[in-house]
Structure to design on (174 residues):
């Protein structure tokens, strides 16, 4: 899904490095500090979801992303932007229309654009708004893990369900 220039999920017309700076290197990305959170997101398996994935694991992810209502990055509206974008892909690629037993060319062509959400999240993690970043390193790590699990239409549908569960467990903005 092409975006208008300066209208992506990450925001405005400046590049990821800011004015006058070159592109950011991959090793400049914010790093997740919590080993516990890394362990939680490693439990995300969309090909064969465990019974607690959309419940217990989603709740643990949400608790890390928004420890207290209205505090810090990852406001529901910002997180919803990424969720809504993923839902648009799901609507374009419903499981019911997957080709039987063959190569899914339509999905294969869409996958790079689905994974581009990682770049948009990295950009949003670097953008400042009201004294803080729009999304945290933990959010970008969660999204990266979620999108690396997307391999076909079914795992895309499961990714949307997982994301929905995380949003459902997030406290409201105040």
């Amino acid at each position: 899904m092409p975006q208008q220039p300066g209208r992506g999920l990450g925001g405005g017309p400046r590049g990821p490095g800011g004015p006058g700076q070159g592109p950011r290197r991959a090793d400049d990305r914010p790093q997740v500090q919590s080993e516990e959170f890394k362990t939680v997101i490693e439990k995300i398996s969309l090909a064969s979801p465990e019974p607690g994935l959309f419940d217990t694991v989603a709740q643990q992810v949400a608790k890390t992303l928004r420890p207290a209502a209205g505090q810090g990055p990852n406001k529901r509206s910002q997180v919803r932007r990424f969720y809504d974008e993923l839902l648009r892909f799901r609507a374009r690629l419903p499981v019911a229309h997957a080709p039987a037993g063959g190569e899914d060319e339509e999905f294969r062509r869409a996958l790079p654009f689905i994974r581009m959400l990682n770049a948009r999240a990295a950009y949003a993690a670097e953008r400042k708004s009201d004294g803080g970043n729009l999304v945290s390193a933990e959010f970008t790590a969660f999204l990266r893990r979620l999108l690396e699990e997307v391999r076909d239409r079914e795992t895309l549908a499961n990714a949307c369900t997982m994301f929905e569960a995380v949003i459902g467990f997030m406290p409201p903005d105040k």
Strands lie at 128-129, 132-133. The CA atoms of residues 37 and 64 lie 7 Å apart.
